[in-house]
Amino acid sequence: MSWLLLLAAGALEIVWAYALKQSAGFTRLTPSLITLTAMIGSFGLLALAMRTLPLGTAYTIWTGIGAVGAFVVGIVVLGEAASPLRVVAACLIVAGLVLMKVSSSA
């Protein structure tokens, strides 16, 4: 269950990152509200997951999901560059996340 909570927290991390971009520096109401709501939800779910998951594992995977997810949203939705080096960097993050999960005792 903790892993599902952590995945949901990571998904909300992606949502708030995208909404933050759309908020134009908190000058647009709806994206600003989505950002704040998703942030609170993400932190809350992370806190619940950390009840049983190790700090280093939970936090690393949470931030990694957010980073890679925001990277993918940037490319797919916002038309950002997908240079080979950026893709390799994202793949290395994913590899690190997989290793963190495999090495976790929880």
Describe this protein's structure.
By secondary structure, this protein is mainly alpha-helical. The chain is built from four helices and no strands. Helix 3 (55-76) runs antiparallel to helix 4. The longest helix has 22 residues, at 55-76. The chain is flat, with a radius of gyration of 15 Å.
Count up the helices.
4
Largest sheet: none
Helix content: over 70%
Number of strands: 0
Q: What's the N-to-C terminus distance?
A: 11 Å
Quick take:
By secondary structure, the chain is an all-alpha fold. Helix content is 79%, strand content 0%. Helix 1 (2-22) crosses helix 3.
Secondary-structure topology with pairs:
Blueprint: H1 2-22, H2 29-49, H3 55-76, H4 84-103
Helix pairs in contact: 1-2, 1-3, 3-4
List keywords for this structure.
106 residues, mainly alpha, 4 helices
